[in-house]
Amino acid sequence: MDSSESETRTQGALDGVRVxxxxxxxxxxxxxxxxxxxxxxxxxxxxxxxxxxLRNWRLIKDGTSAWWQVQSRNKRSIALxxxxxxxxEIARRLxxxxxxxxxxxxxxxxxxxxxxxxxxxxxxPSLIMLRISGYGQTGPYRDLPxxxxxxxxxxxxxxxxxxxxxxxxxxxxxxxxxxxALHGTIGILMALYHRQAHGGKGQVIDVALHxxxxxxxxxxxxxxxxxxxxxxxxxxxxxxxxxxxxxxCSDGYVLVAGNGDSIFKRLMSVIDRDDLGNxxxxxxxxxxxxxxxxxxxxxxAWTHTRTVAEVMExxxxxxxxxGKVYTAKDIAEDPHYRARxxxxxxxxxDGFDIEVPGVxxxxxxxxxxxxxxxxxxxxxxxxxxxxxxxxxxxxxxxRERKVIA
Length: 405
Prior knowledge:
Organism: Azohydromonas lata
Helix content: 25-40%
Structural class: alpha/beta
Protein name: CoA transferase
CATH superfamily of the largest domain: Crotonobetainyl-coa:carnitine coa-transferase, domain 1
Enzyme class: transferase
Strand order of the largest sheet: 5-2-1-6-7-8
Keywords: Transferase
Radius of gyration: 25 Å
EC number: 2.8.3.-
Strand content: 5-15%
CATH class of the largest domain: Alpha Beta
């Protein structure tokens, strides 16, 4: 499927919602991306000349990051100098007609430009404002610089990643930023619902990077509170759940989740270890956890003489959850991804085709879509300014003074 087909689909769930995105890089823009995929009009404000630094991150195709083509699809770009008084005034005009404002500056930045929530809500009482920062808008750390990796560390995640007694590793993507963006998106949707149901008033959504990470840390704090237990890194295993691990094959690794009671019995039967499958002491998870090393060794004794494909075929046939470790190539070539429209072809504004991830979640009544490719810097400046009532002469004068580009 390509992006042109998605343009004919049902209207988006957020059609009619106008969003001003002031953020850059990952956390704020990912929230904007998600809203835009479901029909919101997202106007992205970027600095003239440089724009969002993400335009130049990682691998570059025809002068633009391939990542940019995903993060900024369905958005409009206006190049506006927010450090100038005239630029701030234009931003206020845009915000006055918006439903949502997204920003991920350091706390106090907008206040320094005269754009606190209190000031903006006087212009637009129904405004919903998402603020994503390292440590939140309050508290003793609010003014410290914070990136996603720092949020992952403070949120407790980085301590658990990697092998025991070795340096903590990151998961390979900016998961702290993305978790913050998803929490922010949820907050926006709840605030939109509340505004509609309870009198039309907006509110602030305050998301801290480390809190978004901490929110998904499962039993970390309850176990410390109840038992004084400090959970440690466990490599590829899932502590306290057995068996659930990565196992070596002759040509790679597979992940096997055999921790359900009936699944465990089927798994042990497949690997010719009915002695373990029928052992009453291993009938439930608590018993298996006590002997997890023995069970893991038995599974790997069977997998290491077989290929990944062979293990996958046998365990899938026995209804035991199993998965290979996918690379980008594996994903791109997988028929299931294609069948569920999770790989789409998008024509960029520079005229080349690129494959990009599809839209998640899948709403069957009002699905998300790829309507327009990611904009070049300032592509929509003139059109957006005309929408808020500026004349061609005013637009030209702003351009001459380098307020816009």
